Amino acid sequence: MIPLAGGSRDWTDTGRPLHDPDAVRVSYSRLEKLENCALQYVLGEELGLEDRAGYHAWVGSLVHSLLQECEDGAIERTEEALVAAANARWRPREFPSRAVSEAFRRAVTDRMLPAWAREYAETPSLARELRFEFELDGATVAGYIDRVGRVQTGGTIITDYKTGKKANTAVPEENLQLGIYYLALNAVPELRGYLPVKAVELAFLKERSRGMISRAQLPLTSKVAGGYESGMRERLRELVHRVRELIANENYRPNPAANCFHCRFKPLCPMFPEGRDVVTSEAAT
Ligand code: SF4
Description:
By secondary structure, the protein is of the alpha/beta class. The protein is built from eight helices and six strands; from the N terminus they run E-H-H-H-H-H-E-E-E-H-E-E-H-H. Helix 1 packs antiparallel against helix 2 and helix 6 (about 175-185) packs across helix 7. The longest helix is centred in the last third of the chain and has 28 residues, at about 220-250.
């Protein structure tokens, strides 16, 4: 049984545990929510109430597919070919209005794809949408890496494409997603061919820096790499431990220090007026 966030009521009891504690499986998107707030995590990731659809998600998915197909050779590695493919696949019905559809279409065809072509078209990746799975403290950590590229001086660079705003994303030093990707390349024997990783980066396709794509990079020199790896491993270990704790006690509480800006669960959250009980448990007894 799961006590509700404020601890005042019980949720529906299915008579079965929500999870098998011996088969913990995590990914960046799940852990990102957990780091922010346990209540947001259980509602969105465990109970599946997060609405992943919507036009922002559709645009992100379209751009990622186009770039992958371009890297795979199915689309020519030119701005013109990418833009033509985006226009051909554009679906105005995904958007709330024609004006919104056009604004996003222009962002993709005038900014994101041309910027990607300028930055990456001449240097094919070593891998894209690279799937991984590794074990950490008995849990399975899984995901996909957007891109692994070659560094001219030797080694590789891990890239994660972002189609959203830079302001909403943690800097590379603190970015758990990049940290998980770095650990994955070092942990999975089949992926060791991509070592040594010399840098990790976030590529903000919509934003410009001196006329080029805005890329936030963390160079991993031999001086930095050890501390980066151990710091990210500890952070991941702590999160896996929290997942296990939550499975054991099923006590998912809101975090008063959470970033609630993008959380869709305010109507269910006792931290917000719309989520509070209309009748308090004291009054109800
Ligand atoms: S509104 Fe804030 S505190 Fe409440 S569930 Fe969402 S992230 Fe957590």
